[in-house]
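Bit of a strange request maybe. I'm writing a small parser for structure token strings and I need a real example to test against, not something I typed by hand. Could someone generate the tokens for this chain?
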Amino acid sequence: MSSPKEINEAVRLTELYQLDILDTNNEEYFEALVDLGISAFNSAFCFIAFVDSTRQWFKAKRGFDIKEIPRDLSICSQTIKQNAPNVINNCLEHPELKTNSLVIGDPHVRAYLGVPIQSLNGNNVGTFCVLDNAPRSWSKAEIAIASALSKLVEHNLVERAIKINESNEVNSVPPQLHTNHQGLGSWKSASQNEQIELSPSMEKWLCLSQTRLVQAKWFFDLPVAEDRDTASKARLERTGNPFVYRVRLPSGDIVRFEEQVYDNGNPDDQRLFGLVKKINEVCTAPIEINPAVDETDSQRMEIQVDLKRFPKSFLRETVRGKLSLDHQGFITGLASASEQDITKIRQKENFVDLLYKEDQETFRKTLAQCLKNNSPSEAWVRLNIHDDRTWLRMELNPKKRFTAFNKPSVDAVFTALINKSSSAQKSIFDESLLNLTGTLGKVGGWYYHLESGSLKTTDMLREVLGISKDSLHSVFHLSSILSRLSGRNIAVLFIECINNRKPASLEFEASQTDEKKKWFRIMIRPSVGDDGVPMGLYGSIADISETKRVEQALEKNLLTYNLIVDNLTDGLIEIDSNLNVSFVNRNAKTLLQKDRELFVHAMPLEELIPDLDKVQFAALLESVNKVGVSKSVEQFVGFIKRWISLRVFKSGSGYTILIKDITKRKNQSSDLYMLNSAIEQIREIIIVTNDIRKTKEPFGLLYVNSAFETFVGQGRDKWLGRNPYHLIHGRIPTRHYRQLLVAFLSRQKVLVKTEYEVNPEHKVTCDILISPFLDTARNAPCFLIVFRVFDN
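Reply from user aminoacidic:
Good idea to test on real output. This should exercise your parser:
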């Protein structure tokens, strides 16, 4: 039984080999990261390394030249055992490292800061490290920066894993040119142990092409007959003990592999992980093949032949092929479209069971009719192993000369299509329609027909490329022009698009424009006929220069944006999810009385604002996580003796805090509160309105005091915002009403002595004062109206 430590190491190495990164060439991305590390830390050494089974290999490095070191000398072999940064201020004081030859000898490592690099599944496969040859105390900010740089490495590894999984796509990045010096590879089970995912080295050793995901039964049957039982038994035991087996390649050569198999130690997870080492010694011992063994049992490495042993896999992977079906719909044989003979299969599977339920009855009826009438029939069905957009067109041909002792059967030729209608659109050859489509889409369009070699182009295409119609007469000329323009071999893109039957796209900057820079976008899509065979290519090219220039202008205007933010607020702070400061603008530093040159990266927020109410701020963040933005919260900051307003926004994985200095408004509010308390004691009715002339808002009441409620017998909330017209018109004599209206329009101060009609049976004597004033807080003109009522 393997120990958890051995299992974890096997899983880790499996993930490392799946990345296909060991012994690869230099890559600009990783080189830039170590350059950034050297400059940011001002250290002697910086590197990105991956820890193999017996060595530590450097992907990018600064300060030394060696490519790898033995694992037993590596400090990083300790770092990958933990999920936190490994911080060592002085290696001479470390009990395990003080005798290490890298410490006591050249290069005399003293200070070490290493952060583990995790794979997509969370296994520590390498490290990002900064070293110095003098003792050094690593600060929290430096540890945070190193962790951030390791995350950038992890991000690239995730992209690398995704590109490997999508390696069949046209636009995938070409594999790195490298040699696996140690001959190490790996495999792991997937899809509930029905499939095996191979590392790139295993794929190469087995002479496969873009077939990293294979059927588990096919893979486990690879060992030659003499070694198969030994390999199967060792794989079932999963103890990690090494065993050796042989595999016959398509060329007839025999290769030997040493393999160790583990599970992940979890009873609920039955996945297997295999570490494989290729033994390079030549195998001279002859291997006897039992002639009595059926041809289907011989270990041949041709994928298409081997897939015929598994009907479901064969149907999934084959675009055009043949089936033999008995009268009940069971599959008795398989063949590719080019083969004359059909390969018989032992384990029969019902073809009807592989179809979507809504297509099963249709196929049964078609099969029965074909056998009954002894005539060819056609059926359109969908396999439930595909998405529901992929159809199989089935041509059923009954077999002749069957007798009473042999049940009737049919041979079926199938073709996988995207839809039931023909993919060949005859109208695409109509050049006028092609021109119209290009004009409407504002792109240059073209169509190339494979069989005739005809190339149709639009006026817009020739305008974009700046060429005449006569000079563009073949697809080779088109690919040559596009290749010169993009600096890439576009002919290869055309060929891959046809072979893979998948669309492709490419954006590039023109490499030979003397005037302004130009950018173009090419899109290509294959045209497939009813039989699944490519008929041609149609594509487009668009000039996206303006879009790119707008993007660049937006980037250049980032400084302008920051200036606008500075003017609209009194400060801006950005923090991460751990409430550590990542950015403080100059206004915030000035308001918080901080040195403008202060390095604030990774500083806790409570150090930047010591008087911050933690409970209130935690509640604020809780609301932000729900709705994305918080309400403004006011707080007095004692160490600067000022009132500030905080408003928090969600920003990526962190938060943005806008700060406003509200000390002046707070002081004014205090004065206004005292003034309002005094006004409430006055018996006169006091009303404030906006300007009847210079306002975008409707003329209405902005403020009334409590005496107003007593006078009109209604609450003040009912009148706020309403036009005061109904309070005055018809309730005072017309001449007095005109005097007040003139005062409103001319913004003059006026006092009118009049009689006010409270109701038809009750009038009172009163003075009405109208006085214009300017609301300085809003810079808005207003009117003050005072009613003084005299008791009769």
